[in-house]
Design a protein that fits this description.
By secondary structure, the chain is α+β, with helices and mostly antiparallel strands. The chain folds into two domains: 100 residues, no CATH class; 77 residues, no CATH class. Helices cover 45% and strands 11% of the residues. The strands form two sheets. A three-stranded antiparallel beta sheet has the order 1-4-5. Strand 4 and strand 5 form a beta hairpin. Helix 3 packs across helix 5 and helix 4 packs across helix 5.
Amino acid sequence: MAWTSEEFGSSHEGIAGAVLADGSEPKAVLLDFGSGADGGLETSEWWAYDGRLRRPRAAGYRAACACGWRGETRPIDWERVPEDRPYDLDTGPAHGDWVEHLRAVERRTVPLPDELTDLIERLEHHLVTLVDQAPVAALRAVTALERLLPGIGREAAQAVRDDELSWDSVGTALGIGPERARSLLTRYLLHR
């Protein structure tokens, strides 16, 4: 099961990935569940590498993030892994490594002013409350925000472009990869 972060999205999606005896990572495998063309799942998660169906057997597992970061490798004792439920191995330590990685990513991001962070949290609280009390009013508020945000996003993206920052530095400041940073700025610049 993939670990996700609402703030960083697919840039920092994590898994408990397989590690082979030589320390390398195996290529992703396609697991076919027999339900048509879209019935397969491509994965590099440790449990898919149990030595069956000509797949290599993982010697260990570690946190693996979509950004390329890897955590500490931990051995797998296959004698203790239930054959009918291999996914039941406790991969909590790897998840903890990934959470620490996200904290490090967050520390490198550009900080928001405390006043703005507080305002965003209060706005979310008020909107959630409004959904329960007056859902149409909540929709009206969301619609107002949808009108406001693209223009501000376009102005901010233009200012970032004018500053001629590298995609790496923009990505680091946002906690995402450079390609995703470029895509984000392009999306805001093209939004009319």
